[in-house]
Every structure is written in structure tokens, then in C-alpha cells.
Design brief:
Distance between the termini: 19 Å
Oligomer: single chain
Strand content: 15-25%
Radius of gyration: 25 Å
Number of helices: 14
Largest sheet: 7 strands, antiparallel
Structural class: alpha+beta
Number of domains: 3
Number of strands: 17
Length: about 475
């Protein structure tokens, strides 16, 4: 969590749109040239980096990605296309491209992959979007859809007819995007195989990402952040299509996977939250640098993003926690009434304290939602809790009180004990089982160690490990 407001770019997996506006008419078909596409990528790049926690610097990860990209470029549709590849400092499972050859992959995706061919499969898909100029084509489609919607809105008086026309336009754009994704799938697998990598890696990694989506869904936060599967669903039909493309190169077992060399590059890589943004440990959020922490009630799950800490109980109640600067001359009462809260119920404002710190609470009602708001002041920073629901039951109010009152300053000992999670690569010795190695993981939910271990290593719980096999462990 960043404790001041940050503007997010809102990019999801494989999003290739830009904010440029190009006039269209029935006789015009605009297509970006390479210079125009590069300018779009250059303009959007800083916003992408900021919204995904910055650039992640790690020599091993950079070497692993560079190795794959070099071979893929030579085997791609356009070997002359230059690429700027950025590893983003985010635990999200994501990769995407911008026009002009800007490719992005998160460290979260690199951590989930188990060999170079799986990373290459993702990169080849994104490179296909660039060489097929999908970003430019999608923008044209969006411009046309926006123009059509504007015309209908201005001319048609019937609201239902307007709504139907807009929905039709949106469905058309969705179909257009799906066609692009399927095209990139096919091109990506062909590039993968031509580069000498295992062409079945695309289907294999789609399955792994599907398993990871199920894992996060069981925690209740599957949709908490944009990820690769938001636009690349690991559906059985899509996986089957990737397998069919791979069969053009031969039966399974062909092509390079490069597992051990790839895993060696991940040893010591950061896993999960960046320490500069705080840590999620079970139901608690703890920030070493800021010296603060709080805990959500049982049944809630936490997710730390660059903009805020989010939580949900999976039943329609959501929490947002962030912070902002507060001038020493400004009181909490002035701040809460300064207009940043829609629907504030003025007579609900109450002064209080939380673990010795000045605090204030209030209620807000807006667009069918009920909000409980809590502010805590620590120096010139105000920390903000906002709990929202459409059904303000007693349990909702109790959840707010429990969370708000748990806010506290961390002791120096607690701060010293907070360490980031990292990936450690170990080799299996004689007689070790999945359960033996999973027990060596630390800093993760003990009840789900086996599940996370098997997921990260592409294994099943009953898989028989072989002596000398490399596997990932998560440790703090």
C-alpha cells in the first residue's frame, strides 16, 4: 500500500488501448505506423509502471526473460521489430503489451512459471499482439463504437433503444477482442515452436494459471486485481485449441523446457508483497516502514495493492484502507467534512481514540450503499478505513468496529521481525515427499502450504519426487 493517493492506469491483461483520438468516417481506415505506435507506448509506459508498483530489478529474472525474448524475436513474424521488456514489481499474475513493442510481465507471473518455455509462451502471445498491430486495430474499433453510441444517443429518444444499441456495440467490441486473443494464441504457439521451445508450454501454463485462479478464489479474492486470466480465460476449449496448434510440431515431449536453468534464476526473488508497500500476514496488514498494522475479522481476506489495502468477506462487504497527508493545522473533523465523502451523514460524526491515537468515525449513504468510515491520525498522516455494504446488518457494524479498533502502532521488535517472502530453490533429497518440502515453507498460511507448494511447482499432492529435482519454496 502506498500511503498517499496514486492515479492508476487500470490496465488488465493484454490491454492494448490508448487514449489517442483519431477521427473516423465511412471512407477512412486509419492504421498506425511504427512511429505512431511507438509514441503511444512511450507515453503510456510511465503510467503502467506506476500502477504496477514500479520496475522490478533482479539480474536473474532479467536474464531469464531476455533469453526467451531473444529467441522468440528471431522466430517471430517480424524479426525487425524492436521490443522494450519491463518486469513489473507486482505479485499479480499478468502480462500485456502496448503498441510499439512495449512488453510487460510481472514478477508474480515469473514466480508461477516453472521453466523458460512457459514464460516464452506468454511473451510470444504478447509479441503476436504487437506484430499483428492489434493495439491500433482495437483502438479503431473502440473509436467506431464510441462514435456509433454517440450518434444513437443524440438521435434516438427511446432510452431502451439507446441501451440496446450501446449493448450491441459493446458485444461487437468484445467479439473483436476475442478474435484478437485467439489469433495471438495461434501466432504465439507457432512462434514458440519455431524458436525451439516446447510448443505445449502454452496449454500447460494456461492450466497452471487456472489452478492459481481457483486457489485465490478459495481465499475469496479472485477478482481483487487485474490478472492475465481476466482477458485470457483458461477455458478447456482454449487449452484444447493451444494443444491443437502445438501438435503441428509433433507429439508432446518435443522442444526445450529449460526447467533447472530457469528455476536457478528465480532463487532469492521477491515473492508476494513488496516490503515498501507493507505485508499481508494472514488476516493482518503490517507496514514496517510506517510502523502500523491492523487485523480484519475472521472470514475476511486481505489483498495489498499499490493504491490501497483491500479486503472482502466474500458476501458483499468490502473494505478499503489507505492513507493521505493531513496538514498539522487541519483537524480530523474538518477533514472528514471537506467534501471527499459522498452522502456523509453529518450527525453520525463521532470523535474517539484508537489505541491512544486521535480518531473519528462516521456513516455515509450513497447509491444504495452504506458506508462506515473511520479515520486515525498519526502525525501528519490520516489513515482511512472505509467499509461498504448494501445490507448494513449488525454483523457489518461489528466488523467495522473490530477492524478499526485493531489499528495500532507496531513495536520496534515487531518491525524488526517483519521480513519479505522470497523464493528459494532447493533440490529434492532421498525419501522427501511433497508434504515434507511444503512444511519447510514459512510466512504462508500453514493450512494451505501443500496446496501452494504443489501449485507453484506444477505438481499434484501425490506426485512422487525424484532425487535432485529442483523445486520452489516460499520462505521469509
Amino acid at each position: 500500500m502506498i500511503f498517499v493517493a496514486v492515479l492508476a492506469a487500470g490496465l488488465a491483461g493484454c490491454q492494448l488501448t490508448s487514449s489517442s483520438k483519431i477521427p473516423l468516417n465511412n471512407n477512412t481506415r486509419v492504421f498506425f505506423g511504427s512511429d505512431a505506435e511507438s509514441s503511444i507506448g512511450a507515453r503510456e509506459h510511465p503510467r503502467v509502471v506506476a500502477s504496477y508498483g514500479g520496475v522490478y530489478k533482479n539480474a536473474g529474472a532479467e536474464e531469464a526473460v531476455a533469453k526467451a525474448v531473444g529467441r522468440l524475436v528471431a522466430a517471430s513474424q517480424d524479426p525487425s521489430q524492436a521490443y522494450k521488456v519491463t518486469i513489473l514489481n507486482s505479485p499479480a499474475i499478468n502480462a500485456f503489451a502496448l503498441p510499439g513493442g512495449y512488453l510487460y510481465v510481472t514478477r508474480g507471473l515469473l514466480a508461477l512459471a516453472n521453466d523458460t518455455s512457459e514464460v516464452a509462451a506468454v511473451l510470444a502471445h504478447e509479441m503476436a499482439h504487437v506484430t499483428a498491430h492489434h493495439g491500433a486495430a482495437r483502438q479503431q474499433q473502440e473509436e467506431a463504437a464510441a462514435l456509433a453510441s454517440k450518434v444513437v444517443t443524440n438521435i434516438v429518444d427511446d432510452p431502451e433503444e439507446v441501451e440496446a444499441a450501446v449493448e450491441s456495440s459493446q458485444r461487437s467490441l468484445a467479439r473483436f477482442t476475442q478474435v484478437q486473443e485467439l489469433q495471438a494464441d495461434a501466432i504465439g504457439v507457432r512462434t514458440l515452436g519455431k524458436a525451439g521451445y516446447d510448443p505445449y508450454a502454452a496449454a500447460r501454463f494456461l492450466k497452471t494459471m487456472g489452478r492459481f485462479a481457483d486457489y485465490t478464489s478459495a481465499r475469496g479474492d479472485a477478482k481483487a486485481a487485474p490478472d492475465f486470466l481476466s482477458t485470457h480465460p483458461a477455458t478447456p476449449s482454449r487449452i484444447a485449441r493451444a494443444v491443437r496448434e502445438a501438435r503441428q510440431f509433433g507429439a508432446p515431449g518435443i522442444g526445450e523446457q529449460d526447467r533447472d536453468a530457469y528455476l536457478s534464476k528465480l532463487d532469492g526473488m521477491l515473492y508476494g508483497d513488496d516490503p515498501l508497500q507493507g505485508f499481508v500476514r494472514g488476516r493482518s496488514f503490517l507496514h514496517k516502514a510506517l510502523g502500523i498494522g491492523f487485523t480484519v475479522p475472521d472470514g475476511f481476506t486481505l489483498e495489498n495493492t499499490p493504491q490501497a489495502v483491500l479486503a472482502s468477506d466474500g458476501k458483499g462487504t468490502a473494505l478499503r484502507f489507505d492513507g493521505a497527508e493531513l496538514a498539522s493545522s487541519e483537524s480530523l473533523s474538518d477533514y472528514i467534512s471537506s467534501g471527499w465523502i459522498n452522502g456523509l451523514v453529518e450527525n453520525s460524526i463521532r470523535q474517539t481514540t484508537v489505541n491512544g491515537l486521535p480518531a473519528i468515525t462516521a456513516t455515509a449513504l450513497a447509491e444504495g450503499w452504506s458506508f462506515r468510515i473511520g479515520l486515525v491520525r498519526k502525525g501528519e498522516t490520516v489513515y482511512r478505513f472505509i467499509l461498504a455494504t448494501r445490507e448494513p446488518t449488525e454483523a457489518f457494524l461489528a466488523s467495522f468496529e473490530e477492524t478499526f479498533k485493531s489499528f495500532r502502532q507496531l513495536s520496534l521488535t515487531e518491525q524488526a521481525r517483519l521480513r519479505p517472502l522470497t523464493i528459494r530453490i532447493v533440490t529434492v533429497s532421498g525419501g522427501q515427499t511433497v508434504h515434507d518440502l511444503a512444511r519447510r515453507m514459512s510466512g504462508v498460511d500453514p493450512s494451505r502450504r501443500v496446496e501452494l507448494f504443489t501449485l507453484l511447482n506444477g505438481l499434484d499432492e501425490d506426485t512422487r519426487l525424484t532425487i535432485g529435482q529442483s523445486v520452489k519454496l516460499i520462505v521469509d
